[in-house]
Amino acid sequence: MTVYAKSKLIAPLVISLAGTALITSEATFARGADTPVSFEGGSITLDVLSNETVTSSGKTTNNDEGQIAFFDFDFNMGGLVGDFTINAVGASSTSLFDEEKYGKRINSDGDAVELYNFQASSFGDDYDLNLFYHTERYHWGTEGDFFGIMKEGTDVPGADLWNEKVNQGIEFVGKGELEGLKVVAGPQVYWGAEPQTVIKYLFGEDQQHSFVGSYKQAGGSQTSLNGAFDLSDGLKLEVGGLISGQDKVGNTYDYEKNGIIYEDTISTADTLGLRAKLSKDSGGGQISYVAFDYAGLVADSGIPDRWFGTNLPFSESGNKTVVEAGINIPNGSYLIIPRVFYRENLADANPVAFIRNNTDAFMVGDNRAVLATEISLTYDPTPATHFYEWDNDAKEDATLAYNIGLVRKEYRGATDSLKTGDYRSNGRAAEDLWQLNSRIVMNAASGVKTVLKLEAGLKTPNTTAPAANNYRTLEVSVIPNEQSSYKVKYATDDFGPYDWRQEWNEFFPEQLELGYERKLDSGDFGVKFLRRTTGEATGDISELQAHYTYKF
Amino acid sequence: MVERIMKISSKNIMFNKGAIMQKLLVVPALGMLLAGCNPSGGTSTAVSSNEGFSAYCPSVGVADSQCVLNDPENPYANLTVDATTKYTFANAATNDRGAFYVWATAQASEQSGENQYQTAASLHALYDDTDNAAAKEQAILAYKSVLDNYYTDATEGVTPIAATDVSYTLTKANICGDAWSFDTAYDQDLSISNVIYVTSNWCWGVPYATFSIMDIPTSTLNNYDNLEFKVKWEDSTQMIIKIPNADVYAPIDNAQQSELFYTVADFPEVSGAPGWRQVTIPLSDFVSASQTHDDLAAFTEIQINEAWSTDRSFLVTDIVLTGDATGNGLVGDTNGDNLVTIYKSDNVPTPSNYRDLVGENLVEPASLDNLYDDAAAATTALSGWGFSYDTATNSLTSD
Predict the structure, then answer these.
(1) Chain A: residue nearest B33 by CA?
(2) Any idea what the Cα angle at residue B275 is, between residues B273 and B277, rounded to 5°?
(3) Which of A219, A268, A223, A270 is nearest to A247 (CA)?
(4) Residues of chain A neighbouring B235 (CB-CB closer than 8 A)
(5) Nearby residues of B287 by Cβ (< 8 Å), 6 or more positions away
(6) Does B276 lie at the interface with A, CB-CB under 8 angstroms?
(7) CA–CA separation, A420 vs A417, rounded Å?
(8) Are B39 and A257 in contact (CB < 8 Å)?
(9) Is B45 in contact with A346 (Cβ distance < 8 A)?
(10) Closest chain B residue to A350 measured between Cα atoms?
């Protein structure tokens, strides 16, 4: 059966908006002192797809198309300078693979035109003000936020899939005598944040100490005080104290000890946290460290930055004591990093018959007891293009650079069984998991860049009980020149896209993606083939996607 | 060492950074480390495992010892465990160690042969499960206390259903997860034997205890006013009775459905059968406003289910249909006792002395490990206490 879901090719609205913008961009919105708003450009993307579902009862095919456009504007008015983007959707194609996509709102009577993002700044002598709406935001991990209270907000494309307008808020940046002070407030200052105000104040001769706190509108706060001390000869001590989750003081909770379930009450002591990290820079890139992390039952915070691609099982949740150690061992172009990570819970998971609810003051989930050991080998003869930078795929200039990482996670504790309404799920038992990952970047003399990413191991839902998947993934990107790129991605027994698939243990025997992208003078063109086998009655699916983007 | 001074605000407030930071960070840190902060000192609310038992005092659970009331592991220490509530608590206990705390607390409150025997029996079962030496030692002391202090105390019993007319024989039933079969041989209940044991199994993605009486002939249910049965439930506040395909008007959400909730505690207790309730369900509950009683003729199945997925197994027996809905006499009641039986227990234990049960449990325990090396060693021990047990007559006497 062939179904054409929409008869229209390009919505009149998209055409009219694009046309108006193109015609009037120079005449009406020319940038300058007397023209506070200027049109800067934009893009129109047309996409088509054709997919096929094969089940035991037959074959179903579907074709669809979509149109989406973005219009970028700068402005300078009222003491604010900034930019914003308007989005317009004519139609959103229904994909079997990209079930969530930006623009899908049009299929459920959402607005055809919306403000996509907005940012504006006001610069002063004493402070700067930055307004942000759906723009990238960065964590403060390198700015004294030892507990990761301000979380990373760079996954705007991920938020787009769900039409989540994160991040939103206003930022105050102190200058002069207020140097070191930052205040961010808003309805969602990072993805998933409740309405809150986050304050950071750096102080000390080198602004090496900090106060960082977040204060939610609905109650609940995190307050930290952090210090960094250069002791001697490259020895550095970072230490921080935390008070978190005071809104939970007085809540009751259950815990098990010696086969007995006890009821107790969250107290102020359960809101306290402490982190300390002692590191030694021995020169030549050799850095060793030992870190200690204590978090009371409800003293949730953030996770440390994942330096050098570590896959150690960090957790934001409280209820833990953690000891971690590692050392960077450089040898020529090689870098070897062994790490060890040990975590115990203050209160273990409750047994199956005495479940915790998801409204309880705390739960044992990804913070469960574990002994993790990790070793990674990195070969990078051109350290100027740091191998672990987020954009190293594109920037790495070595003929050959690679890493291999292996982590073993010996979970010594179970996770809580959970109850949500009438639904109950058993938790995960103690188990051993491992993960091997590698990235290889090759730059041939001909100019062809090849990037390989391999991953293998045992992957599980975070909190529910099904057995671990023995999964493998391989991703190969070949970039012969600046105009073209090819991509192959193949996975076996891996979870499908979106977090919920992992939590619901929905994985697929095989997933294949073949892609080609071509940059054009006027924009770009791409074609992609996707295939997924389910091994179940729901059938195997495949899809061919193509898009053309015109930039103006 | 040069003391560093810094300025933190426009108000020219100066302070010693090193000293302040040291106090702000290091002192609380040491405090937390010293505190330990693992949860402790909470109030015991339940027993999650048979593992880990220890005797709080040498005489715990024996005679008039009160120390179990001070045991921080005893979830019942501060609850009222009396002749009325002890059965509810005992039924709700999910393991032998929990049952021990119930009965030992009951014994501390009111010394009796029943409480002492049940204390001993729960310790015996705990030993059987865990090989815990303390449980073994206390079980022997508690059994001996039955003989020393409550020699003449006897169990209660239930009057069996005398009916012999069985118009519908229970030939097909389903206990979820136990496909199309059922076990009516459960005889571990002290009050009623050969009851149906409906275990909680994995049904529809949740742990669920459900029992279906199937293949009831059409034109059967419309002849009767009530469904009656005895049920004994582990900590269940509600149960669901379902007649599939019945058209029940549900006043809460106006939805039409075939099942109704009933509160177990609303039904009377069965005299002499601790934990059992005598349930009467009017079949008219399953007739909607637009129907008549005769519409029940079409239905061929009755389900007795736990409410929600509470993972609580239950015992059920003496399932009968009563009440003449035809006006022409109770259909199938050949002996005139006003009961038409679907299933009934045919082996109701007669009242017996606790001392005889102690003798049996010590010398030839039916399903538990012997507390002694063998029957001879148990007999020798009994003799040392001044008693003898006759395995032929299952009776214990004082020497």
Answers:
(1) A294
(2) 80
(3) A219
(4) none
(5) B246, B293, B295, B296
(6) no
(7) 10
(8) yes
(9) no
(10) B48
Which 3 state secondary structure label does DSSP give A296?
Answer: coil
E strand residue ranges, B40-96: 43-47
Check CB contact of A400 with chain B, cutoff 8 Å: no
* Chain A interface disruption, residue of B34, B45, B51, most A CBs within 10 A: B45
B157/chain A closest Cα distance in angstroms: 32
Tokens (6 digits) for A228? 């960094």
Q: What is the pLDDT along chain B (399 residues), one digit of tens a residue?
A: 333 333 333 333 334 455 555 555 555 555 555 455 678 889 999 999 999 999 999 999 999 999 999 999 999 999 999 887 887 788 778 899 999 999 999 999 999 999 999 999 999 999 999 999 999 999 999 999 999 999 999 876 655 555 445 555 555 566 665 544 455 566 666 677 778 887 777 666 666 778 888 778 889 999 999 999 999 876 667 888 988 877 665 444 445 567 888 888 889 888 777 778 899 999 988 887 777 889 899 998 888 888 766 667 788 888 889 999 998 888 888 777 788 888 887 655 566 789 999 999 999 997 889 999 999 999 999 999 999 999 998 899 998
Looking at beta carbons, which residues of chain A come within 8 Å of B29?
A: 239, 241, 274, 276
- CB < 8 Å to A203, chain B: 6, 8, 17
Query: Residue A481: phi, psi to the nearest 5?
Result: -160, -175
User: Which of A230, A262, A267, A294 is the best mutation test for B, with the most CBs of B within 10 A?
Assistant: A262
The full DSSP string for A158-175 is HHHHTT----EEEEEEE-
Q: What is the ipTM of this complex?
A: 0.71
Task: Map tokens 């040069």 to a residue.
Answer: B2
Rounded to a whole number of angstroms, the distance from the CA of B155 to the nearest CA of chain A is 31
User: Which of chain A's residues have a Cβ under 8 Å away from the Cβ of B38?
Assistant: 346-347
Q: Who contacts A283 (Cβ-Cβ below 8 Å, separation ≥6)?
A: A234
How much is the CA Rg of chain A, to the nearest whole Å?
26
Asked if B235 contacts A354 with a C-beta cutoff of 8 angstroms, the reply is: no
- Interface contact flag, A296 B37, Cβ < 8 Å: yes
